[in-house]
Amino acid sequence: MSILDFLKLGVEKASRSTPSADTETVRKITAALDRIEPQRAKFIASFAYVLSRVARADLKISGDELQTMERIVATIGALPEEQAVLVVQMAKTQNILFGATENYLVTREFSEIATQEEKMALLECLFAVSAADTSISSVEDTEIRQIAGELKIEHKDFIAVRSRFREHLEVLKNSRDLGTPGPKA
Question: Which phi-psi region, left, alpha or beta, contains residue 78 (left: φ > 0; alpha: ψ -120 to 50)?
Answer without folding.
Answer: left
